[in-house]
Specification:
- The protein has 103 residues and is an all-alpha fold.
- It has a domain of 67 residues.
- The protein is elongated and about 55 Å long.
- The protein starts with 10 loop residues before the first helix and ends in a 7-residue tail after the last helix.
């Protein structure tokens, strides 16, 4: 079985993909920033505000991160949440541009 050669995209298609990638890079969240915010403002839900989880952020704000317990547990899942948020944002942007994203 032979490996298929990469297909050269037409210029207009290449520009569309580059535009979509540029839009994604402008909205993608950084894992290090999320952890830094968690360290400084974890009990107030700052990392959740950063990731766009407004409802949970407000709940953490009013309960002081579940008296700190919720905030500590959240520290274990910040990286996974950043990955999920970035994956959803990338899929939405690629779909808006009509690009099939298989990454």
């Amino acid at each position: 079985m032979s490996v298929a050669e990469p297909v050269e995209l037409p210029e207009w298609e290449r520009l569309r993909v580059l535009r979509a990638e540029a839009e994604y890079s402008s909205v993608k969240k950084d894992r290090r920033a999320a952890y830094a915010i968690w360290v400084c403002l974890g009990v107030f839900g700052g990392h959740r505000f950063y990731l766009g989880d407004t409802g949970r952020s407000i709940a953490m704000l009013f309960t002081l991160g579940g008296l700190g317990v919720w905030a500590l547990i959240d520290g274990l899942f910040v990286a996974r949440r950043v990955t999920t948020v970035n994956r959803v944002r990338r899929a939405a942007i690629m779909a808006r541009y009509g690009i099939l994203d298989i990454s």
